[in-house]
Design brief:
single chain, alpha/beta, Ribosomal Protein L4, Chain: A, 2 domains, 6 strands
Amino acid sequence: MLKVPVFSIQGQRAGEMEIDPAVLGGRVRPRLLKQAVVQYLANQRSGTAATKSRGMVQGSTRKLYRQKGTGNARMGNNRTCIRRGGGVAFAKGKQNFHQGLPKKMRRLARNNAILARITSGDVLVVEDLAFDVPKTKDFASMLGALGVEKGCLVAIVGDESNVWLSGRNIPKTDIRPVSALHGYEVLRRKQLVFSRSAFEALQRDPARLRRPADAASDGE
């Protein structure tokens, strides 16, 4: 069993929680993690960069002067690619960089990324991660007390809106619902911080990562 330290919101050690590495894939698969990272970054590309071909440039199609007898080099119309203001010879159109990854592979990559963070000692759990009102100053103080102010990913259950509102403007700090985590996001930041409810959801069922209320409503 892997042990993860638990801290209070003031930064005091409050115990530890355990998780079976088997539920996170058993071992870290570097090739799968790389594939998940490449897929995530490729899907962030908009692919909207484009240039105009000679057919897209506005202008006359009349040949500028006759082919022979002028002493000049032969020349077509003013939209040709060798003239200023003309089209591009091999125009670049909109491109689709989207890459797919099966759901089971995405889940395994996310779980492997979490496993890698746990084995390297970069994961901790916050006991009472909740705020009565959104307050960035209190969130920043909590990060300082935990020693993760240089960059971290905070995983919450999803209904802790005050936590998200409190930390959304802090640099190098990402706040995500645990059910929406991606392997790239886990690996991007130096440390991973779970709320206790989020870590319990990971312990229960890392494949689905739902809230206890949702699981109870389904009769599980």
